[in-house]
From TrEMBL:
Enzyme superclass (EC): oxidoreductase
Family: Belongs to the D-isomer specific 2-hydroxyacid dehydrogenase family.
Domain (ACT) ranges: 342-411
Domain of life (superkingdom): Bacteria
Record-given protein name: D-3-phosphoglycerate dehydrogenase
Listed Pfam families: 2-Hacid_dh, 2-Hacid_dh_C, ACT_AHAS_ss
PROSITE patterns named among the record's database cross-references: ACT, D_2_HYDROXYACID_DH_2
Catalytic activity annotation: (R)-2-hydroxyglutarate + NAD(+) = 2-oxoglutarate + NADH + H(+); (2R)-3-phosphoglycerate + NAD(+) = 3-phosphooxypyruvate + NADH + H(+)
Cited InterPro entries: ACT-like_dom_sf, ACT_dom, AHAS_small-like_ACT, D-2-hydroxyacid_DH, D-isomer_2_OHA_DH_cat_dom, D-isomer_DH_CS, D-isomer_DH_NAD-bd, NAD(P)-bd_dom_sf
Stated role: Catalyzes the reversible oxidation of 3-phospho-D-glycerate to 3-phosphonooxypyruvate, the first step of the phosphorylated L-serine biosynthesis pathway. Also catalyzes the reversible oxidation of 2-hydroxyglutarate to 2-oxoglutarate.
Length: 411
């Protein structure tokens, strides 16, 4: 590896920000001297994405850009990847780790936005507003109290009781709803919320079921025909998590038979990408389904904060080496290195690498002022502070160590 490829002054490091990431990210990067920034309003895919990452040191995406192993292997200079959102399922995190690329996200900044949208949808669905609205747009006048209910006293079932699910539970209780939840982890019930004994029990008691789980192999189609059949007749389903969590054809069948009285769906198994904006779904034919184009987290407040938060994480890693809150990487929180040079060494976690690094530096007469190490089962991350005059020879030595994935010097 040629170490100089990864060791550049900030102004020469290129950041590529896709999917209309908020300008707050650009401002934060520029303030810290990262002035070489290319932005794009949409997601990229295929050859366009490969072109965009070919010489990028930082890549910023939201939920749409699919960063596969192949894309990562086409990005030899990529130093860190920022997901300016919560979900990281669109990234091949393991390959990124193996290539020495930490991935950061914004785990909290848009959660309130999703919670507010879902709360509004629960009220709209219980009143049958989507259908009444659609009929009125066509000149009809559906003034009726049939199948129209207050939220007060109804039961909300929350599947995935994490940052979003818990906030929805608290807000729903303010409306007088009873809250039951289900999670794979033990979670502290907030307010009067109650943990259901099983997903089946939750589905059987809830008037509205709302999903807030991540996309994982376990959550794939977790709401299919069998689960929909368990839901109460006349109940509603809300999904603002990931499109793969619900079997859309099964949902369409449950709506067709009027077993479910409505649904609000923000995320879809296939969402239009980049230059392919045509949306099709088996759900578009139902007046009683609220469809939104994956905008659960799309508020000004959330996007400003996400821009700042993820940019700060990229800057911190690039300028200081800290990997705190990386989702795929050994975490190290580092102090400032004023007056010293800091070297980063990412390696495969096999026995003897650290000893080898230290032996080489010692043999070259380079004094180590401070050293920090964190590992996971596959990758080790060593950060070494040396006196400034020793930095170039130290980098050259470290890059020779077998099982090195990346090494670079911070400016
Ligand atoms: N529609 C939109 O614009 C947005 C969608 N999201 C989606 O919402 C998801 C949830 O977000 P947060 O609440 O912030 O995440 P979180 O990580 O705080 O909570 C997720 C919860 O789901 C639980 N869980 C995981 N697998 C489960 C399973 N098989 N069964 C039951 N529970 C399970 C976890 O233990 C955790 O408590 C994100 O992963 C993302 O995919 C997030 C933000 C915006
Ligand atoms: O934060 C998330 O996981 C989301 O789904 C929001 O995605 P977006 O930034 O709106 O593409």
């Amino acid at each position: 590896m040629n170490p100089s490829r990864l060791s550049r002054p900030r102004s020469q490091l290129k950041a590529v920000l896709l999917e209309g990431i908020h300008p707050s990210a650009v401002e934060a990067l520029q303030r810290e001297g990262y002035t070489h920034i290319v932005t794009h309003p949409k997601a990229l895919a295929g050859a366009d994405l490969l072109d965009a990452v070919a010489d990028a040191h930082f890549l910023g995406i939201r939920s749409r850009t699919q960063v596969t192993g192949d894309v990562l292997r086409h990005a030899p200079r990529l130093t860190a990847l920022g997901c300016f959102c919560i979900g990281t399922n669109q990234v091949d995190l393991k390959t990124a780790m193996r290539l020495g690329i930490p991935v950061f996200n914004a785990p909290f900044s848009n959660t309130r936005s999703v919670a507010e949208l879902v709360l509004a949808e629960i009220i709209m669905l219980l009143r049958g507003i989507p259908e009444k609205n659609a009929i009125l747009h066509r000149g009809g006048w559906m003034k009726s109290a049939a199948d129209s209910y207050e939220a007060r006293g109804k039961t909300l079932g929350i599947v995935g009781y994490g940052h979003i699910g818990t906030q929805i539970g608290v807000l729903a209780e303010q409306l007088g709803m009873n809250v039951v939840f289900r999670d794979v982890e033990a979670r502290l019930p907030l307010g009067n919320a109650r943990e259901a004994a099983s997903l089946d029990e939750l589905l059987e008691v809830a008037d509205v079921v709302t999903l807030h789980v991540p996309e994982t192999p376990e959550t794939m189609n977790m709401i299919g025909a069998a689960q929909l059949a368990r839901m109460k007749r006349g109940s509603h389903l809300v999904n603002a998590s990931r499109g793969t969590v619900v079997d859309i054809d099964a949902l369409a069948a449950a709506l067709e038979s009027r077993h479910l009285h409505g649904a609000a769906i923000d995320v879809f198994p296939v969402e239009p990408q980049g230059n392919d904006p045509v949306f099709t779904s088996a759900l578009t034919r139902f007046d009683n389904v609220l469809l939104t184009p994956h905008i659960g987290g799309s508020t000004s407040e959330a996007q400003v904060n996400i821009g700042k938060e993820v940019a700060a994480k990229l800057i911190r890693y690039s300028s200081n080496g800290s990997t705190t809150s990386a989702v795929n990487f050994p975490e190290v929180a580092l102090p400032q290195h004023t007056g010293r040079s800091r070297l980063l060494h990412i390696h495969r976690n096999v026995p003897g690498v650290l000893a080898h690094v230290n032996e080489r530096l010692s043999a070259a007469g380079i004094n180590i002022a401070a050293q920090y190490l964190s590992t996971n089962e596959e990758v080790g991350y060593v950060v070494i502070d040396v006196d400034q005059e020793g930095s170039d020879p130290a980098l050259a030595e470290m890059c020779q160590v077998p099982d090195t994935i990346r090494c670079r010097i911070l400016y």
